[in-house]
């Protein structure tokens, strides 16, 4: 039988999926054990024991200096920035994207600008943001907005234009004015697609968040990682990276679930 | 004065002539079927009736007035596909037109007005045979059911003209004849003027009161786009017979081969 026609069963598919994870953990723990056997104070490849101790110290004990639980403080600070940034970007994308998609006059007016903006490398204008908005929360949120909004705007506009032309004619024959075409046809059909666009933009959003926090911040997941790098504290960095990954997966799956619950027609092939 | 008047109508795209010198008078309540080979301008003519395309030359009048240049609520349309809204249930799809008409800003009805509108909607769904599917999503319906829904959605607006662009082209033959019966029934009940484009000459002969054949009279083998199509036969349906059917069929097929060559 050809390889392209061989499909794994349910159990073997799960096992095949788990295998790379187990393999990485195995290789890591072997390498870590070897280094620790040589030098029990090795910092580069901390073992499970050191990492749990670090997590316990960061997440479940008050910081001796500030009295805060650092990991939770970092998490809420980062998630706030991420949520605010992505939220504003999604809202902008929805408004500009729909107007661009539905109204030819606005499209001629705004689409070239949006295309040009989406080509600007956001990190290159980070210094401008720091200068204009200061080193506070605003510049970090703005980086996420500027980094993700233009691409989502283009995506939403594209999704609107992909709606069948027959629908647009049909709703006009039902007497709809331009406003009604937007609110009853374009907006409801584009919302689930917007959620998909947000899911895709979360990757870049995390990138911009951590970059901004690394450069100028006093709390946040990215700030902490770059802070403890000075002490080669891999026992903190690795759990933080895993924690960020888990957060990203959870947010992504929540959005996917929301999309399914809110828009049953969208995921059942109704588009 | 006739209901729809077409006088010396031409449609050209640059050098390409699609329709030449169309003349036609249609009375209110007629059911015209438009047949012809692909590329002979039947769909273009339908789009002009809809307001999606405008004439290059000549007149297209509705009760003596020029047709509006964009689609409006007086002219309903059913396409071969994609005529219904996937994000609305069957009932919401039909309700939409009434809501758009009564609420220009909100686009939604509430309370008593909504209940009243829903009564109309349910009666309409019943008459197209979708009464039991009112709460389904369009993607849960078969192709034939979706077309029933599209027809109901248009007819609830009581349009003065109903335009059908190969509405049954994608359906199985058995379903198609059910749809013919439904369409004739609705046409008799509402008295709407209907224009239907079809590929199927038999369909044209069987349905409607009047058959319009779009065909090219002149053909330049070196430049197939040089001449447009016009109406070559305009027949009341009672006059149809076997020989005539064969005549038209041959002529249409010949044009189709020219187009393809």
TrEMBL record, chain A:
UniProt-recorded name of the protein: Binding-protein-dependent transport system inner membrane protein
Membrane-spanning intervals of the chain: 12-31, 82-103, 110-135, 236-255
Chief subcellular location: membrane
UniProt record similarity statement: Belongs to the binding-protein-dependent transport system permease family.
Species in which this protein is naturally found: Marinobacter lipolyticus SM19
InterPro entries per record: MetI-like, MetI-like_sf
Keywords, alphabetical: Cell membrane, Membrane, Transmembrane, Transmembrane helix, Transport
Keyword Transmembrane annotated: yes
Domain of life the protein comes from: Bacteria
GO cellular component entries: plasma membrane
Ranges where the ABC transmembrane type-1 domain occurs: 79-255
Annotated Pfam families: BPD_transp_1 (PF00528)
Subcellular locations according to the entry: Cell membrane
Membrane topology: Multi-pass membrane protein
PROSITE patterns according to UniProt: ABC_TM1
GO terms, biological process: transmembrane transport
Lineage of source species: Bacteria, Pseudomonadati, Pseudomonadota, Gammaproteobacteria, Pseudomonadales
Keyword Cell membrane carried by entry: yes
From TrEMBL, chain B:
InterPro entries: AAA+_ATPase (IPR003593), ABC_SmlMolc_Importer (IPR050093), ABC_transporter-like_ATP-bd (IPR003439), ABC_transporter-like_CS (IPR017871), P-loop_NTPase (IPR027417)
Swiss-Prot/TrEMBL keywords: ATP-binding, Nucleotide-binding, Transport
CDD domains: ABC_NrtD_SsuB_transporters
Gene Ontology molecular-function annotations: ATP binding; ATP hydrolysis activity
SUPFAM superfamilies cross-referenced by the UniProt entry: P-loop containing nucleoside triphosphate hydrolases
Matches recorded under Gene3D superfamilies: P-loop containing nucleotide triphosphate hydrolases
UniProt keyword annotation of Nucleotide-binding present: yes
Domain ABC transporter: 4-241
Protein name: Spermidine/putrescine ABC transporter ATPase
Source species of the chain: Marinobacter lipolyticus SM19
């Amino acid at each position: 039988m050809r390889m392209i026609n061989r499909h794994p069963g349910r159990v073997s598919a799960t096992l095949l999926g788990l295998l790379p994870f187990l393999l990485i953990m195995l290789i890591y723990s072997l390498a870590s054990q070897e280094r620790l056997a040589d030098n029990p104070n090795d910092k580069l490849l901390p073992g499970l024991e050191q990492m749990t101790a670090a997590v316990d110290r960061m997440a479940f004990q008050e910081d001796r200096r500030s009295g805060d639980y650092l990991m939770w403080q970092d998490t809420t600070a980062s998630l706030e920035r991420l949520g605010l940034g992505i939220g504003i970007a999604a809202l902008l994308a929805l408004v500009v994207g729909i107007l661009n998609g539905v109204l030819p006059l606005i499209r001629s007016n705004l689409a070239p600008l949006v295309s040009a903006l989406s080509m600007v490398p956001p990190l290159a204008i980070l210094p401008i943001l720091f200068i204009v908005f200061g080193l506070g929360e605003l510049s970090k949120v703005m980086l996420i907005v500027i980094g993700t909004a233009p691409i989502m705007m283009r995506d939403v506009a594209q999704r609107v234009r992909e709606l069948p032309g027959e629908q647009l004619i049909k709703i006009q024959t039902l007497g709809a004015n331009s406003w009604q075409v937007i609110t009853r046809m374009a907006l409801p059909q584009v919302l689930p697609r917007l959620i998909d666009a947000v899911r895709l933009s979360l990757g870049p959003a995390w990138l911009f968040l951590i970059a901004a926090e690394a450069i100028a911040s006093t709390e946040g997941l990215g700030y902490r990682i770059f802070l403890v790098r000075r002490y080669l504290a891999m026992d903190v960095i690795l759990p933080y990276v895993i924690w960020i990954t888990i957060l990203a997966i959870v947010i992504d799956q929540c959005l996917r679930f929301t999309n399914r619950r809110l828009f049953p027609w969208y995921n059942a092939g109704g588009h | 004065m006739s209901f729809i008047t077409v006088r010396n109508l031409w449609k050209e795209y640059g050098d390409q002539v699609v329709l030449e010198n169309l003349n036609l008078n249609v009375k209110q309540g007629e059911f015209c079927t438009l047949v012809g080979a692909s590329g002979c301008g039947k769909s273009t003519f339908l789009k002009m009736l809809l307001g999606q395309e405008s004439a290059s030359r000549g007149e297209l009048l509705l009760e003596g007035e020029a047709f509006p240049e964009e689609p409006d609520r007086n002219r309903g349309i059913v396409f071969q596909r994609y005529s219904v809204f996937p994000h609305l249930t069957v009932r919401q799809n039909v309700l939409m037109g009434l809501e758009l008409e009564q609420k220009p800003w909100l686009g939604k009805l509430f309370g008593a007005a909504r209940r009243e509108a829903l009564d109309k909607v349910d009666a309409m769904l019943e008459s197209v045979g979708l009464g039991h599917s009112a709460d389904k999503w369009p993607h849960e319906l078969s192709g034939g059911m979706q077309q029933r829904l599209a027809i109901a959605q248009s007819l609830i607006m009581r349009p003065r003209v109903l335009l059908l662009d190969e509405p049954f082209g994608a359906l199985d033959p058995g379903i198609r004849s059910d749809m013919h019966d439904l369409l004739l029934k609705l046409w008799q009940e509402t008295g709407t003027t209907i224009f239907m484009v079809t590929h199927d000459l038999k369909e044209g002969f069987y349905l409607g009161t009047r058959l319009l054949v779009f065909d090219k009279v002149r053909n330049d083998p070196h430049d197939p786009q040089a001449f447009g199509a016009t109406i070559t036969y305009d027949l009341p349906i009672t006059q149809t017979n076997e020989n005539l059917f064969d005549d038209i069929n041959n002529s249409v097929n010949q044009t189709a081969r020219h187009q393809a060559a």
